[in-house]
Amino acid sequence: MKRIAYLHNAYDIEYELQKNKLATCSFSMSLNDEKMKLVQPKYFIELWDHHKRIGMFVVNPKNTTKNESTNEVTFECEHVLSLLHSSVIFGYMQISNYTTTQVLQALFNKQLVNHFKLGRCALTRYFHYGFENSDSLLNSIMSVFEPINEDYLINIDDSVYPFVFNVDKSSTKAKDLITVGRNMKGIDVEDDPTDICTRIYPLGHGEGINQLTIKKVNGGVPYLQAPQSVIDKYGLHARIWADKKYENPTTLKNDAQKILDNNMTPKRSYKINVAHTDVIMSNPTDYKAGDVIRVFDKELGINEDNFVEKYKRSGVYETPDNLTIEIGSVRKGLGSKWSDLQKKQMVNDVYSQGATNIDSRDFQDNADDRYPAIIRFPIPEDVVNINQMTLTYELSKFRATNRTLKSAGALVDSTSSGGSIVKSTSSGGGSVQTSSSGGGTTQSSTSGGGGTLTSAAGGAYISTTSSGGSGIVTAKGKPFTNYESFTALENKTSDPDDGSAHTHRFTINGGHFLHDHEVELPNHVHGMNIPAHNHNVTIPSHNHSVTIPAHTHNTQIPAHDHQIDIPDHVHSINIPGHTHEIEYGIFENPKEASSVEITVDGTKLSITATSGQNIDLLPYIKKNSDGDIERGRYAEIIIKPNDLARINATVTSRLFIQSRIGVTM
User: Which spans does this entry mark as compositional bias, Gly residues (predicted)?
Assistant: First the structure.
C-alpha cells in the first residue's frame, strides 16, 4: 500500500471498538480542505489516537453538509475486516469433522481478493458446518465461532498486508482496576431481565416433523434447562430459539447452551466514563476491547471482573481525556443472540429447506438358495431425515420362459471321487435246468505211447495178518534126505524169515518117504521188507472214446447275495454336435418354496414367512458410530428362498431431501 496523504486537519474524530465485532470510526473535514478530494470511497484510512495506533479502516459513506453555518464533509469508516463482505459463497459448501483452523482456512480460500490470511488459531473444535448462498464471507467466518462455548478474542494485525486474522483464548486475569477516586468518572448499571430464559427449545434446519432438534444428542429431551437453584430464584421462563442454518444437532445444542448461559439471569451491564489514562498519565494503561477489568464500587456493592465489550472514544483531540467503556460479565461471552447482530453480520435468510419425497423400488426375479434375490437402492448424501423405510414381498412359483435350449456337441468327462461297494440280494434260491437234444461221443488221442517212471525214496516194512489158520498141501517131489523125528511131546522151533518162532507138526504116510505134507497154519502175521525201488511203465499209443448220452443238468441255487466293488474310474462320453428346438412361453415350476431368509445390510431378520407387508427396515439399515443411518451409499436387501421361487418385492422410503446436488439445465 502507498500512503497518499496525512489528514492533519481532520476533526471530530471518534471511534468504537467492540470485542469480536466490526470496529467503526468517523471524522470530518472542511469542504474547502485541499486534501479532501484525496479521500475517496473504499480508500484505506489509518487511524491514530495521539501516540497510539488504533487500526486500519475503509472509507464507506460520505455525508456532505453545506449551509450558512456549516461547510463540511463527514466520512463514516469500517475496519478493514469489512473487506470480507465483498466475497460470497455461491451454492452449497459443507465442512464436517474438521478442526476450527481447517474450517477457517477453507473459508479464507474463498476470497476474491486475498486481503487476509489466517494466522494463529488457539481453538480446536470439530463441528458440522453448512454454508449456502452466503452473501458475505465475513458472516460465514464469524458463524464458525457461534457454537464454541469458550471465550476467545479475535485480534487483527492490520499493520501488514495481507492483513492477519488471529484467534486467541481470552484471558480471565484483570488487567486494571476501575474505581471511584482513581480513574472512574461515572458509572451506569443496568439490570435487564427482559431476555431472561431458564429453558430453551432449540430448532434447526427443516420444517414440521423434519425440523432438526437436539433430542438425539440430549437423551431424548428437546430442551436445555438452567440449574434448579436459578429456577428457584428467577422462575421457569421458556423460549423457542429457531435458527435454520444449523444442520447438526451437536452444533445446535452447543450454541443453545451458550445462549442459555448468557440469559438465565438478568443481564447486567456497566457503562463507565473513565479518565483516559493514555493521555493524563505518564505510565498509561492501554485498554482495548476484550480486556478484563475489575470494577469496584463500595456503595453499589460492585466488585467484579468483567470483559470490556465496547471501547468508545469521541472528540479524540477536542476532549482527549474522554473515554467510555461498556463492560459485561466474564461468563457471558458473546452476549444475547435474541436481537440481530450488527450491520452485515446478520444470519443469512436464504436456505434450501428441502421437501419430503416418496421413493418406491420394485423388484421381480427368480431366485433359489444358491442365487438369492439382491435388492440395492441408494440413500443420497443430501437426505436430511429418513422418516420411513419399509419392505413388502411375496414368493410365487419359479417362472421360466422356454423348455429347451440349443446345444453343441461336447466331450463330457464324469469322474467319481472314489469307488463304491454295491450289494444285491435275492429273496431265495432257484433251480436252473439245461437240456441237450442227445448224447455225444468225445475222442481224445495221443501221438504215441510213453514211459512213466515212479520212484520211492526208500523201502518200507509191511505187515499182513490172517484171520485164521489153513491147511497147505505141498507137492510131492523129492524124498527127504535129512530129517529128524520128533515125538508128539517134543517141540521144535523154527525161525522163519520174519523172525517169529513157531512149530510145525507133520505126519509122513507111505513108504519110501514119498509123501505130502499137510500143514496146519495157525493165526499169524507175515512181515515183508520192501527195499527202495522204482517202477517203469510203458504206455503204448492209444486213444479214448467217451460216449455221453442225452441228459439234463439240474442245479439248485440257494438264497444268496452278490457284493461288487467298483474302483475309482472316469466315464468319457462324446456327445456329437446337435440342436434342440426352443419352445417359447412362460412355464411355472409345480413346486413352491416353503420358507425365506432375509438379510438387510448384513443383519439377518427373524422373518421366514413366504410373504410380508410393510416390514420396518430402519432398525436394520447400517448406521455410523453416532447411530445415524449412513448416507451417500447403496443399502442392500438379500432375499433367499429355500427352493426355486420367484421374488416380488417393493421397498418404499419417505425421505426429506435438500436440493443441493446437480446442475440447472
Answer: 427-451
